[in-house]
Write the structure tokens for this entry.
Amino acid sequence: MAPAWLKIYANISTNQKQPELLQSFLNRFRVYFMIFSQNRDELRQFYISSWEKYRDKRPLEALEKQVGEVVAMHSEYHAFLEQGEDTLAKDFTPELGESNPFMHMGLHLGLREQLSVNRPVGITAIFNRLLKSYREVHRTEHEMMECLAEMLWQAQRSGGAADEQQYLEQLKKL
């Protein structure tokens, strides 16, 4: 039996009237492939090279553009990412007050992916409501990312799946 993603791909690729749907699918699949199949250094290198290309106004693929936009919002990470290879091996210890910029930017990207597909259902409406209140995308994302990080931490701690309903309930309280 073919995996679900392959069935979706086959269905989309035969519909020549919707090439943007196919491109959207391929971009999302690439995101998941990159996140789940590469090691830490490769993922970090992707952030570094995406930022370099974005900063230098070179042509970007869709995911590189997203990463570049997120890095651009975080001037506190620019110098660090511009150190290049030296950033690959850096460990971040919360006990010493260090936060991991790659994790932080990954939460931005994860939230944006959720918003693009409205999953869990209702998250886009919550974002739009919060955006009216906060009036700034970056701040709105940060508020929501606190809930996302909590959900991921709880899932990791329990060894189970992330609880989307609990996540939505926490977002609704913002």
User: Anything to note?
Assistant: Residues 118-174 form one domain. Residues 1-19 have pLDDT under 50 and may be disordered.
